[in-house]
Amino acid sequence: xxxxxxxxxxxxxxxxxxxxxxxEDAEMQRATDKITALYxxxxxxxxxxxxxxxxxxxxxxxxxxxxxHRFPNPTFFVDDGYSGTNYDRPGFQAMLAEIEAGKVAVCxxxxxxxxxxxxxxxxxxxxxxxxxxxxxxxxxNDHFDTIDPNSTDNDVAGIKNWFNxxxxxxxxxxxxxxxKAKGERGVPLTTNVPFGYLKDPNDKTRWxxxxxxxxxxxxxxxxxxEGRGPMQIAKVLQEEKVLNPTAYKRxxxxxxxxxxxxxxxxxxxxxxxxxxxRREYTGCTVNFKTYTNSIWDKKQRDTPxxxxxxxxxxxxxxxxxxxxxxxxxxxxxxxxxxKTGKSSLFSGMVxxxxxxxxxxxxxxxxxxxxxxxxxxxxxxxxxxxxxAHYIRAVVLExxxxxxxxxxxxxxxxxxxxxxxxxxxxxxxxxxxAIRANKKRLAQADKRLTxxxxxxxxxxxxxxxxxxxxxxxxxxxxxYEDEQxxxxxxxxxxxxxxxxxxxxxxxxxxFIQRVHKYEDLQELTPYALRELVKAIYIGAPDKSSGxxxxxxxISYDLVGFIPVDELMKQETA
Length: 572
What we know:
Strand order of the largest sheet: 3-6-5-7-8-9
Distance between the termini: 93 Å
Radius of gyration: 34 Å
């Protein structure tokens, strides 16, 4: 620590230390080079109790006490806005560094609770750390002073520390109860409104759309729908000179805890990912997204999706639900760009029809555009597990666009017939899939119940001595592993059944999407991603002497559409 003496004060270079005037007596300055650490702490909960615990009040009490007892070189260490449940506080850590360097003679706090509200750690510092470095500790209002270990006030210090900890726990329980009640009513618990919204000036619990920011959010989702990844989106926004959320909020006078970046147009890829995954843009409030284990462990952990509280239609929509869902699918199909920096609008959507592997996009700077192609990831020059499924990118684009045009044209001209045919097709496939899934679900549930009975039986055999501890441990672990697998399978089956039961609803949604593209003149990345889910490339057919490439297109929400058969029936 660097101290400079000036007009009877100690100026401390460390920014977490405050300035305290020295004792007026000159001999007090000459008595020792060690300092008297005056430690002040205030948390949000303490601030609610009034002025008595304010930093200013603590400073006044500590400085007056230091003067009255002629303690040398009083210096403040302050933590304003920090909980006493842990000791990871900048002011305390700075003071501890001075103590461990042997530069502190006395440490004073207003009372024991200012030092901390963790009885174990507080006791450790008072009874071990401070004595180890020859530091005298005083808690003024609690009449605690380590110079007199036989004092009756010192005897009850442990009880007071326990009570201080109990107070912190009790306060935490009350705050959690209030937050839980608010969250269960649908009141947003987040203090920082998502980029794209503002707090309603007439009701702070409601959000309104910030039109300028909302346009940026829509632009980000649009770029993702076109097949761009977070890094590419960040680059586009920087090139377009779009302010990042922190810079935008600061320039708009909106409070934000994030520090402003040197370049206001620099977008972090994590920011892009956070925006793309934030469900609140669909108009819902999502509470209890994170949790902490206890008041001692402040690490934020993600709450499983099924345990989060979601309230729909609580504020205006910026991103439609179907667009949000499609973006999440695209995010699951993450793909790397080639070394050339090129990417295809089909990247992440093309699969081998035989082995199901993704088709790799291949290009080099030496290729002409017509030479770019897709090849099965399992094909390695006849050494892999699949044959040479190969298609040029320009051919794929022509075939897909031709098929999409045929589907769009047929649906818009013969909507009723298309609906009837697809409803029949979907109902047949759904009924079969639902029957199979429900049968397997019943089997899994039955096996889960059976495993519970088996576990009880081997436990009883182990207690009775019929089964060794080693054998019991092995069998119980085997049963637990099987139960975990079954539970995961049951969850997947239930989700599949729900998807199958929504098939007719999905068909209507698909028809509405098609109508948006009645006048589409060329294949666009957005239209492709909104209508098509996957493209399957078959092995080339050379039986006729010419190379014929077969592809199958799975459309989003409805699967494969037999457009050729439909058109034949139309002409017939």
